Hints:
The chain is an alpha+beta fold.
Amino acid sequence: xxxxxxxxxxxxxxKRGIPFSISGFxxxxxxxxxxxxxxxxxxxxxxxxxxxxxxxxxxxxKNLPSVNVVASANAVAAAWAKERGYKITLQGLEAAYxxxxxxxxxxxxxxxxxxxTREFRVxxxxxxIQHKSASxxxxxxxxxxxxxxGLLSLDQQHTPPETLKNAFHRLSIPSAEARQIAGKLMxxxxxHAWRSHLMTLQKAL
Length: 205
């Protein structure tokens, strides 16, 4: 079977609306032949190139089958980070908003990463990746990490202790774990300005 036929066969097994990397197809043949096959599928409308080296199968809208959507810019950014082994997480202001530390949602979708600063655009949707130091990316997918990034984006002088306490409650974690997390954050050098707030909170939890 030709590279083009193999690529077409594999593409038909890919989920619609989910971005994927061309690198997963290079085992089918030479890089040039695989790239040609993917370009042909794009011309036929079976694929959409959403970013250099990334594609998505169009997905018809349920209520408007004649209208197709492709992968979101968020999904493309996540696929890019996974492909290259980069860490990625929502920016501090987004974490602060989700925790109730601030009431205004960020206008722009921004991620922090140890990868290079760059942007992803799919249609009218724009996502920005900001390079951050390893210390800003600690505790990924952990409550203490979300709290740390949220606090780093705010001024402790304009954040009442009660607001900080409510943020901990939003995490729905046991009091003992909450006190441990407060202790971790107190010892985080980047949160030195928050130490007094966190110490008061730890005693109240």
